[in-house]
Here is the input.
Amino acid sequence: MRRIVSAVALLAVLPLAACSAKPASPAAPAVTVTRTVPASVPPTSTPPTAGPTPTSAAPTTVPKTVPPATPRPHLTNASAVVSQYYQDITDHDYAAAWALGGSHIAGTTYDRWVAGFATTQNITLGTISAFGASRVHAVLYATQTDGTLKTYAGDYTVADGILVGASIHQTS
Here is the structure.
């Protein structure tokens, strides 16, 4: 019986022995590394961290973000793709418009396509009507550098956020 009492007393004292007379320091927050990866890139593993960093000795940690592979988010709405395409042309960002599908609908080389906008000051979209998830009809107004206005109408097909087809004609 004496052994049982000694064992019970020992078990009761062990948790108290873990405590010391020193005041407990606050637990350091865990370090979190956040990584944003575009859907088209396979995920990679993130190496484990060495452990929590004391808050008093280390500066604030900012999550690390990997930039997307493309300069802008992937557009999935067909109307948004057509709008962005003409905004890129208005901004004279021909490389972005070409990458957004100009290469599929130009019917010519990049240099000739860019030269075709030499007298275009800006392009304003009038009406945009969506037909399903991938087809859009749009009316656009192209103001020329001499102040004249040309009006166009067209049907556009979008797949995976890229213009893949278009039928555009000048109406005035």
Observations:
- The CA atoms of residues 33 and 48 lie 10 Å apart.
- Residues 1-49, 51-70 have pLDDT under 50 and may be disordered.
- The two ends are 107 Å apart (CA to CA).
